[in-house]
Amino acid sequence: MTLTTMSDSPAPVTRPRSRPGRPTRRTPRTTVMAAPALLWYAVFMIGPIGAIFVISVLRWPGMLAETGFAGLDNYRAVLGDSLFWQAARNSAVQLVIAVPVMIVGAFMLGYFLSTKPRGYRVLKVVIFTPALISASAKAMIFWGMFAPQGVINKLLGGVGLASLQHAWIADTATAFGCIIAIDIWAGIGYTATLYAARLDALPSSVHEAAEIDGAGHWRRMWGIAYPMVRDYVGVTVMLQFLWTLFTSAQNVLLLTQGGPGNSSTNLSFLVYQKAFVQSDLGYSQAAGVLLFAVGLAGMLVIRRAFRQSY
């Protein structure tokens, strides 16, 4: 008969403990594994950003033209140009309207989906659909809606509001509003899907306890669910801020070309127009550097505003 004693049992494996507050030491193997990603990031991310700064101090009147050093002349030209300031005002209006409306609407829609109403799986697919439509297809859809003989004017005429019919994207008063409306439509469903996924991960006991205490949906949404996912909301606000600031040029390009006049020109479209239409690469990249600075400052403000206090 074999007796098993305490001395025969395998000795417990002791692992070195890291001291609280002390960063974990990375091994050389970890750095080697990350080397391809770091190289890719350096070549395709940091490199182009550095190129923007370099081109912004060059006199470069076209891709095939001779270049020369311009110093800060491009920045002086940008800051002294009334078109730049009009584009900056349009971008500010676009951000102030589009991002809050998109985030608040998406959070409410995401909360509604997280309550799993009847047919919520189909509803998720429907609201995510705008994210699957290409930019040119979106432009065609909204061209058909905003045209003088489009869907919106026909609906207004059908309900007896013919006096409100309008050439929506051909009027200086409404053209940029149409661009903002497209931004909101394109972003709200995608963001709501992200919120629904995040809210689904919250413990159901939290909502059950709130329901027992008599809290309604409004209080559960903004008083319980929102504080628990506030940091996640901050990330989505940051993403929508950057997407609206940097990528809305495609809607302007496809629908209004910055017009009528310059009424729908924003900063991202101005950078495109100066570079690819007017072949003023130095001016374009100087405006791009200022746009980069606005984006960086906005990210820092959003990060601070949504930082968890606990």
Labels describing this entry:
mainly alpha, single chain, 13 helices, disordered N terminus, 310 residues, two-stranded antiparallel sheet
Describe the model:
- The protein has 310 residues and is mainly α.
- Helix content is 66%, strand content 1%.
- It is built from 13 helices and two strands, in the order αββαααααααααααα.
- The chain has a two-stranded antiparallel ribbon with strand order 1-2.
- Helix 11 (249-255) crosses helix 12 (267-277).
- Residues 1-9 have low confidence and may be disordered.
Radius of gyration: 26 Å
Task: Report the β-strand fraction as a percent range.
Answer: under 5%
Main sheet: strand order:
1-2
User: Given the structure, what is the number of helices?
Assistant: 13
Number of strands: 2
Identify the overall geometry: globular
Question: How far apart lie the N and C ends?
Answer: 60 Å
Low-confidence stretches: 1-9
Percent in helix: 55-70%
Run of helices and strands: HEEHHHHHHHHHHHH
Helix/strand class: mainly alpha
State mean pLDDT (0 to 100 scale).
Answer: 87
Please describe the biggest sheet, giving its number of strands, its sense, and whether it closes into a barrel.
2 strands, antiparallel
In short, what is this structure?
This protein is mainly alpha-helical and 310 residues long. The chain has 13 helices and two strands, in the order αββαααααααααααα. It is globular.
Topology (elements, then pairings):
Blueprint: H1 28-55, E1 58-59, E2 68-69, H2 73-79, H3 82-114, H4 120-128, H5 135-146, H6 151-158, H7 175-200, H8 204-212, H9 217-228, H10 230-247, H11 249-255, H12 267-277, H13 281-305
Antiparallel strand pairs: 1-2
